[in-house]
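This section describes the prediction task in plain terms. A model, or a person checking by hand, is given the sequence of a single protein chain and must write out its three-dimensional structure as a string of tokens. No templates, partner chains or ligands are provided. The sample shown here is typical of the held-out split.
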Amino acid sequence: MQLTVWTYEGPPHVGAMRVATAMRGVHYVLHAPQGDTYADLLFTMIERNPARPPVTYTTFQARDLGKDTAELFKKSAREAYERFKPELVLVGASCTAELIQDDPAGIGQTIGIPVPVVPVEFSAYQHKENHGASETFYRLARACTGNGAPRSGAPADPKTCNVLGPTALGFRHRDDVTEVCRLLAQLGVKVNVVAPLGASPGDLARLPDAAFNVVLYPELAETTARWLQKTYGQPMVSVVPIGVGATKDFVTRVATLAGVDPAPALSGMGSRLPWYSRSVDSTYLTGKRVFIFGDASHVVAAARVASEELGFTVVGLGTYSRELARDVRAAAQKYGVPALISDDHLEVEETIAALHPELVLGTQMERHIAKRLGLPCAVISAPVHVQDYPARYSPQMGFEGANVLFDTWVHPLMMGLEEHLLSMFREDFEFADGAGPSHLGAHAPKGAVTRGESSPHAGEVRAAAAPAALAPPGQVAPTLLGTAHVEASEGAGSEPAAITSPAQPSAPPKQEPPAGATVSTWTVEAEKELKKIPFFVRGKAKRNTERFAQERNIALITLETLYDAKAHFRS
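The expected answer:
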């Protein structure tokens, strides 16, 4: 066990809560102390569900430990049934309650209520949230289908399927289901059951009636899908349709199993990502270095989109999902990078700082890490915070999901260019902090620089910009990486600096130079020239120049040193 201020996954009983909350007609009786009721906030405050999760806590306190806590559990379960009248009751213990060993599973069989009671027992100190959700769904599927009772009736229609995996508190699960069901409808495939999200125990009893299963989130549904395959002979579609290429593969796989033509779904895909990837503008993205971290399914899918559809260079790949670490290692081997399998956010931060990516794709924690390091970031995986449970339609899967990915990933990089331009011309009369809108000159604030006047530093800025303006067409202006176009042509080696403070050059955490190495300082002129470099590559230029100076024992970095370093690293 490790004490930490952050965790990528909660304990397994939170996973059970996600399944119970996603379903209808299910109630979860949780043996837990008073402090473990915090989990309600995950659904009401963060996911913004309109109702509390269907969970009853025994909420025993310290004074109850000397009494019969097992009887307290029975009483809570009976009262929960009388109040909520569920079709099925789940019983289990939180990680804290597990220590007192009251055996909720055994007690649940003696409660005496007229509905099925399904125990969910976990080793809370060995497994985590996704495992808890996966095991809960599996046990519910077994219980509701009669533990694999033979299917009766006519053979299943080959054009029917189950959609498995979406739960409450999942990353865009609601919208992913809508998008995938739309694709299936275009293929003429009928959805038999979507589970757990929106399903009832009666719906789970109908799982064997489908011809095959679509697994959207392997972390949550692969165990159940494999059991259905073994018990009822239902093949499964395990292609996660994130990105244009994966969605095409998904459509083809479903069409093959259902015996239908994939053309209707493929012809009207409506994604703008392929068009942009073929456009001239997209060359700005080519070779951008990206680090990806999250749950295994989203990481593997995101790496494919980044590499094959947007032309990024994957420089790091990792997951906190140890159950699917093998898939991430295989993907990392494909891209020629080491796989980071860890649930320690400090280790993830160290890896990101060492790799110097230009874009981070990750969870809510990677968003915080990227902000500290001054890197653009997009969230692609749970755990996430309230802003990633949007009220609008925003899937990750399917062709519309590819549009969402394109917007989410590309905008942080494109807006970085705009911020650099604003920073570069911040002393100009048009962009000075006190200047009003350029088309409303008469309304400029008192004391602001107006069109007829000149800023005290305007001459400097224009002089600095002059070499770039006078450079012959097709040639690089005589400033070190002076434009974003120059850096785009440089390829995968660029490094970003802080977005939050575009006027300040920033870099990843400083590293102590080797013993005996020269510590270089910068002249005022060299620092001014450094500030002309786009902030998202300024960090790399600064590091390269200082390395160049240290290797040659140059103690004072001048303009000449800066240009010599530029020539050295471009050659």
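For orientation: The chain has four domains: 12-129, 160-267, 270-476, 517-571.
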